[in-house]
Structures are given as structure tokens and as C-alpha cells.
Amino acid sequence: MAPASSVSAIFNPLLVPTLSPACHSHSSSVPLRLSNVRVLVVGAGGIGCEVCKDLLLSGFRRLCVVDLDTIDVSNLNRQFFFRNAHVGLSKAFVLAAACSALLSPTERQALARKRARALRQLQQTGEVDSDGEEESEENNDGKPGPDADGQAPLSEAEGVGEREGDVCIDGRTVWGVVGQKMNILSSDFTIQLLQTYDVVISALDNQKARRHLNGLCIAADLPLIEAGSTGYSGQVMPILKNETLCYDCEAKPRDQQRFPVCTLRQRPERPEHCIAWAKMIYELVFGVEDNENLLSDLKEQLRTFLDVSSTAEAEGREDETSLPGTHEKGAGEDSAGTREEAMRLMSRKMMKELFHDQIVDLLRLSQENKEAMKKQELLPTPLCVQGLTDKETFEASHCRASEDTKTTNKGPKQNAIAPTENTQGEGSGLESQRTWSVQECQEVFERSFLGLLERQKTTERENAGTGKREAGIPFDKDDDLAMDFVAAAANLRMHNFHIALKSRWFIQAVAGSIIPAIAATNAVVAALQVVQLFHLLQFLHSEGRLRHQRREAPQEENEKRKPVKTLRSDSNCRYVWVKPFVTGVRPDAAGRLILPEVVDPPRASCFLCQQQTVTIELASLS
To answer: How many angstroms separate the first and last alpha carbons of the chain?
Structure first.
């Protein structure tokens, strides 16, 4: 490996240092035990789930997971530790219990004994043995200790990762994986609490919480490994006070619009969610084939409508009476009218599939889950599609009954549709700024669907003539047909979920700036966080700067040590960027998707890094 101090050195950020569960450093006679390193993971979402799994499989055995949220049905498609039975429970508790299940029963029991012993010690004496290795045969409260085989009573071995009683968990009592439902912005999440841990890993997804955690870690002089992801891009930043940039050293753009697939599919709450969903539906039906589309499992189902429409068109050329109700005109006009009616029927059936059948399925799923029913103020309403056949009259009447029920609901949630909002526009000046009614949205959906279908067939014929295999119409917000389709679909989706409809102008502005959240990127970013944690621990241990590391060297020897090294020049820690495309001078031969950068010093303009911290102890004079 090239020296870390060389700026131009080629460094592989995936090169994990040779850290075993108990490794020695050249400057310390005390081995670094990964199983004794106290790690606080803040956030149990997409990145948090992956980080906890990676940490546990890497040998860490003292993890505390903090998150305020509870599991919703919409989380199940993206956060893979959660199941339908977990809906309504704390994310942190469920994640901790699921990660603990990765360990053997014997190890879980041993960790549970250590945690129970540490809790008793903290309660009785206010102090806890740092490693929990010295266990007596009988505890102070008279309970028997482990037997000769190292086994503890089953009551003490259960519940690793499922404890709910503590207001805030002291890092000295953390053994195994422990979950805590907690708001990090609350007064209980203090600097003193953070100082009971060795390192903090951030898995947060909003700037306010990340800035707050960054400030607390700087004040506590605690290492922080910050990370984030946006679409196919991501970054990892190791942060150490007075040595590296902090999260606030550089101005951050506003939180970009990125939405998890679970929110888009099952519980949209804002117009942006519906717009992102509509854009993905467009890409799925008319765009270039993309396996990374978050709705790709619907591809075959929706493509069936296109295949049926193609068959109907072919039959229309041969049979002038394929559909009843056409006017008797010339053979050519009659055939064209038949094909057009077939296409219109297909568009309505697709509309019914997207805005009626799938909503009915979602209602059935919600009704089976009582916790989801309690959390939803208004259930989604299936759309009554115009032009349904006689066989679907019953479903149409069900739609009307659902709409009547919706209008009688009291206390609608924010953004619920007012009775006049479907017909009155947001702006009365330009047509693009007028909000369409639900009926107009159906008409625009049908018209744009037919136009896009015709253009797609024309493109396919041209590609077949030139020998090209790839066919599709990429989304362009300046493409009128594509934009009409997305705007109509988004508004119909908003109607399903009682969200105020928006103008085409508003939807066009949002559709051009949406970046989806991708689970694979979260997994890559989480793995890079763990790699940077290895490099950070290796450096801190070699310098004797790990917060809870035992120091056996005498004080005189410590005073004669060489000047303290810095994380920037004497470690393998790097800022790591995950790119959405291959970069480099020769991308085909030696391109990269993961780019490391040398760690920069704190900015002189950063208020947080330049402020001095003074600890004042108040003595009682009473």
C-alpha cells in the first residue's frame, strides 16, 4: 500500500486493514478487541440496517442503535430486516433483535449475561468494568453467576437487542445489539451519553439531524463517520475534531427530492411522491428498459396491455366488426375507427389497473394489518374509470360509494382535496398553470397514452429497419406527450390518496428534479462506512487515542512519546465518493465507481470547528 501521506498515491478504499478480533499495534502492548469497541449507530433506516449487519459480521459485539421512527407497511420493500409482523414496532428494537439473531445462541447468552451484569453494576455502584471480563461466581444481589461451562440462567440470556426500559442507554452497559427508540434532538441525547461510546456512525437522512449529531460529536471530541446517498451517488466522511472537515465546514445544498420505493408504492403523502411514481410508470411502459426501475416488478403486468393493444390493432385490420358500436362507414374508415376504439379500451383498462385494481389490493392489505389501519387517517380511494364495460358496472358503483364515503369523512389530513380543488386552478392565467379536474386527467391520460403508443410503434418500426434492438422513449420534461402522461397519472394518483391535485406546470418542475432512493447504493455506502471505521480504529489504537482503550504504559513513558500524529497524514482514512458512472482518464480500461480523496483540515470559516470548548464543574456549597 502506498503511504497515506502521499496525496497522489493510488489508494483502494476497499482495502481493509489487517484487524482481527484481537490485534496488536506497534505502539501499544494492549490488543485492540473489536468485540469491546462501543459503537453508536444513529438511524435504523436503509443505511442503518446495512451498517448494523456489516458491523456484526465484522466482529463488533457492542452496538447501540438509536432511531425515533416505527415500522410502517411502506418500509417493508426496502429495509430488509423488517417483516409485516413488525409494523407498528420501533425500528431500533426490531433491527437490534434481527441482528442479534445472526449470532449463535451461545454467544447471545454470553452477551446477555454481560449486559445484565453491567446494568446491575451501574445501578449499584455507578461504575462498570470496561470489558466485562471479570465475572464473579455470585453477583452482589445474590443471583448465581455463570456455571463452570460459562452458561447463565436463561432469564438473563434472553432479550438481547430488545430492551425498551431505559431513557437513554449508557455505552458502558451495551453488550450485543441494543435498540433504543429515541429522538436525538431531545435533551436526553447528551454529550455525556455520547462520551460513553468509542465511535458514532451516522445513518441519518436529513440535514437538520445530521448537523445536530455533528455538533454533539465535535463537542464530545468523539469520532464520527458520516454518510449519505442520493440515487446512485453516495459519500462517506470520517470526522475527527480539529483534524478533519466536519459536516458544517462546507455549505450543503437543500435536501434533494429522493424517495424510498416503499413510500412511492404504498403510502404517498405528498405530491412529489405521486409525481415520482408517475414518472417511473412512464419509464416502465414507454421508456428504455431499465432493471433498476423501482417499479420493475410491474413491468410484465403493464406490458401485457401493450401486447393486447397490438393484437387488437392487428385484428382490427382483418375484422371490421371486432368491436360493436361503430358507425357504418367505408371499409377504411370503419377499420381505423375500430382500431382507435380498441386502443382507447386498452388505455382505460390500464387506467383501471393502476388507479383502481392496485388501490383495491392495497386496501385489502391495509385491512389485514390493524396497525396500518390505526395510523392512516384516510384510506385510499379507488378511481372510477370512465367507459367501463357492463361487467365492471358493479365495481364502478363501488367506486362511487367510496367517493361518497370520502366526502363525509371528518378531519381530513393535510393536503386533503377540498370539494372545489378539482375544478379550480392554482393559477387562472395560463392553461399549464390550471389544475385539471379528475375527469380531465382521465381524458389527458387516455389521449397521451394513445399518442405515446403510436410514437413507440413508429420508433420500433424505424429501429427494425435500421437493425437497432433497443426501443423506447426516454422521459423528457419538455416532451409534451410524455409530460401530459406523467401529469395526468400523478394527479390521478393524488386523487387516490386524497392529496390536492397540482397543475401541469408544477408537476413539470418537480419531475425534472426527482432522484430516487436506491437500496443498492445504501448497501455500498454502509460497507464503505465499516471500512473507514477499520482505518479509524487502527489509527486511534496505534496512537493510544481510543477513548476507552486501556493504557498500561507508565505516565513517564507517555510524556516522552513522540508528537501526536494526525488522522489526515498518518492514517488510511479517506473521504470516499460513490459515483453513478465510471470515471477516470481511461474509463473503459481502468475506470472507477468509488473515488477516495485525501482528508482535508477544518475550514477556518467554520464556526463549529473554530469554537473553543471549556468544561466547567460546579461544586455545591451547601
So the answer is: 61
Annotated binding site for ATP: 43-48, 67, 75-78, 91, 205-210
pLDDT digit string, tens, across residues 16-49:
555 555 555 545 556 678 889 999 999 998 899 9
Strand-pairing partners, residue 592, are 583
**Cα separation, 324 vs 345, whole angstroms:** 12
C-alpha cell at 345: 379500451
pLDDT, tens digit, 9 for 90 and up, residues 569-589: 888 899 999 988 887 777 777
**Cα 18-22-25 angle, rounded to 5 deg:** 60
Q: How many helices (H) and strands (E) does the chain have?
A: 21, 10
Mean pLDDT of the chain: 74
Strand order in the sheet with 38-42: 176-181, 62-67, 38-42, 199-202, 224-230, 233-239, 575-583, 592-597
Q: Where are the alpha helices (H) located in 517-586, listed in sequence order?
A: 519-542, 555-559, 567-570
Query: Mind listing the domains of the chain with CATH numbers?
Result: 34-127+164-251+517-548+568-598 (3.40.50.720), 261-307+339-389+430-512 (1.10.10.520)
Residues in binding site:
43-48, 67, 75-78, 91, 205-210, 246, 249, 606, 609
CA atoms of 319 and 334, how far apart (whole Å): 10
Contact 214, 239 (CB under 8 A): yes
Angle (CA) 82-83-89 rounded to 5° is 70
Say what the pTM is. Answer: 0.62
Q: Which residues belong to the annotated binding site for Zn(2+)? A: 246, 249, 606, 609
CA dist 158 and 214 (Å) reads: 34
Q: What is the rounded distance in angstroms from the CA atom of residue 595 to the CA atom of residue 574?
A: 9
Burial (Cβ within 10 Å: 0-12, 13-18, ≥19) of residue 398? middle
Largest alpha-carbon pair distance within the chain? 107
pLDDT tens digits, residue range 503-526? 988 888 888 776 666 788 889 999
Give me the catalytic one of 262, 399, 441, 573: 262
pLDDT tops 90 at residue 94: yes
- Which residue's C-alpha cell is 370539494? 419
Q: Establish whether 49 is a catalytic residue.
A: no
Distances (CA, A) of 519 to 4, 47, 222, 292, 408: 31, 8, 29, 10, 40
Tally the C-alpha atoms within 13 A of residue 450's C-alpha that lie toward its C-beta. 15
Please state the three-class secondary structure of 96-124 as a single string: HHHHHCCCCHHHHHHHHHHHHHHHHHHHH
Give SS3 for 402: helix
